[in-house]
Design a protein that fits this description.
Blueprint: H1 9-21, H2 27-37, H3 44-56, E1 60-64, E2 77-81, H4 83-100, H5 103-111
Antiparallel strand pairs: 1-2
Helix pairs in contact: 1-2, 2-3
Length: 114
Amino acid sequence: MPKGNNLGEFEQLVILALLRLGEGAYGMTVRREIEERADRRVSLGAIYATLDRLESKGLISSHLGQSDGVHRVRAKRFFMVESEGERALRSTLNSLDRMRDGLMQFAQLMEMGL
């Protein structure tokens, strides 16, 4: 992935939620997953804005589910992570790991007063 294209924190949470949810991933389930697992309240608008942005980048894709035909309820839009989205997430997490590498040793030295 090119320099400067790491995912933001919220984008990471959304992609992780999509991966956890699998085929059942649509806006409301993504919101619930993030709220429950990350203990973070988010608006549905923020979820959809992020899903749209990730889709425009080619990191995720979506399709409309079936409408029940009885109720006048709009069909759900389901999302899935594309291979480029998996690569972007892996790259971002690897960058964070490299930044954290060695910090434990530094913290231990600081605790010793060195």
